[in-house]
Amino acid sequence: MTDHGHPESALQAAFLQHDSTLAPSSRVPGEDDSAVYRTLLESTKAIPWKIDWATMEFAYIGPQIEALLGWAPSTWKTVNDWAERMHPDDREAVVNFCVAQSKAGTDHEADYRALTRDGGYVWLRDVVHVVRNDKGDVEALIGFMFDISERKRTEEKLAQLQRELEHLSFHDSLTGAGNRRMFDEVIERTWSAAQESGKALSLIMVDIDFFKSYNDYYGHLQGDECLKRVARLLGEAAGPDHFLGRFGGEEFVLVLANTEADTAVRIAEQCRTLIAEEAIAHVRSPHQQRVTASFGVGTIVPTGRTDRTAFVNLVDAQLYHAKENGRNRIAAVDRAGMQGEAFKAYSR
């Protein structure tokens, strides 16, 4: 193995053979080949290297590696040093990929986090060329390491921005609950899953009582705070396994997968209780001058003969019944109600 501080002639020949920019015609007459290649290889930010396939030893690695990672060129002896100086989360996949591609004689690239001598990590991209002998057997690997940390940071910022934009496109900006667009996707997905599993699907529609009067008396800023507080309480009652969305204005909706009728009514009652206990002042409400809400609840096991939109409309009708019968109460319909639209009213 040659000294790690100087490119060997085989590496020079390989770069000369496979990179037209280093062709003999581009060299300055009279220049010493060794000096030319040493200058080219060691002045670039890309870090050149060569591995002998038979011994799996580094024949050469550029001195730039020490400035970037802190490891001197002399410490890069075998491919084990390369693998061990890789983030544990990246190591297995990257090593397996590079070995498989190299055995197949296929040029390839790999991105991974390389360990620095002080314990940090730098994102690298290895661009690898497989060198074969006259018989077609793999003889060596030559390539360049590139520092792509800045690119990765930019990609992560863009990915984070994309996640934020997706979140905004599916969530109500005021309350943080899902918006109507997200509700449409959730109810479609949940309906299909319930149809396949044969399990019950429940829906709860919620409307804050006398909310226009609340806004007129307290102002829209206070009205916004009321909406946020009610959304938080509904989320607490529904829990993380169920979907909460803002259906529009002062109306919310909960989609309860795998939930029978009795459980759905209990969740609605818990929502109603939490809102009452929050004791949000509402001087224009006849219900103890506090903010209250009305609830429509429906439960169904979807089949090929049932219609999702009709079910949503039926639950919305239950909400209307609750409001028409005095507000601050629950009107519920179960599977049998899909034919008769019967409902039950619950109140304190």
UniProtKB/TrEMBL annotation:
CDD domains: GGDEF, PAS. Residues 199-335 form the GGDEF domain. It is an enzyme of class 2 (transferase). Its EC number is 2.7.7.65. Residues 33-94 form the PAS domain. GO terms for molecular function: diguanylate cyclase activity. GO terms for cellular component: plasma membrane. Coiled coil: none annotated. GO terms for biological process: cell adhesion involved in single-species biofilm formation; negative regulation of bacterial-type flagellum-dependent cell motility. It catalyses: 2 GTP = 3',3'-c-di-GMP + 2 diphosphate. Residues 108-160 form the PAC domain. InterPro entries: Diguanylate_Cyclase, GGDEF_dom, Nucleotide_cyclase, PAC, PAS, PAS-assoc_C, PAS-like_dom_sf, PAS_fold_3. Pfam families: GGDEF, PAS_3. NCBIfam families: GGDEF (TIGR00254), sensory_box (TIGR00229). This is diguanylate cyclase. It comes from Paraburkholderia solisilvae.
